[in-house]
Amino acid sequence: MKNTLKLITAFLIVLSCSRDTDNGDQFASQYFGIYTEVNPVSGRTRIDFNEGNKLTVMNNPNSNWGTPYAFKISGNSITLTTIGGQVKTIYFKQVSSTKFEIGDVNPDDMDPSNMIFQK
């Protein structure tokens, strides 16, 4: 009887752990892929959402090189953390399953404004 109870308890613990997911991870898996800036400058910047709450911001349309970040979405903001540990929290709003609006992620902008990206 004790072994059965231990087995059931272990099974419930494993089951509850496997269902634990945060919002950032759900976003990463649901919207995995490359999004391209459509506003304010169409085609200038790309964001590649990867597995494991990782993304890469590519500010050169002619290159696949970019800045990698870990990210977490909470409410209307996204927190970006560089490999070196620098943290930046900016505005984020999901417009549709293929489009989102985000605070300025282009470091070259003299007049930062929100950007819209589409898959």
Question: Would you write up a description of this structure?
Answer:
By secondary structure, the protein is an alpha+beta fold. The chain is 21% helix and 41% strand. The chain has an 8-stranded antiparallel beta barrel. A hairpin with a 3-residue loop joins strand 2 (46-50) and strand 3. The chain is globular and about 25 Å long.
- General form: globular
> Based on DSSP secondary structure assignment, what is the total number of beta strands?
8
Structural class: alpha+beta
What is the share of helical residues? 10-25%
| Fraction of residues in β-strands | 35-45%
Mean pLDDT: 80
Order of helices and strands: HHEEEEEEEE
Oligomer: single chain
Counted by DSSP, the helix tally is 2
Rg from alpha-carbon coordinates: 19 Å
Describe the main β-sheet briefly: 8 strands, antiparallel, barrel
The residue ranges in which pLDDT falls below 50 over 5 or more consecutive positions are 3-24
Intertermini distance: 55 Å
Widest β-sheet, arrangement of strands: 1-2-3-4-5-6-7-8
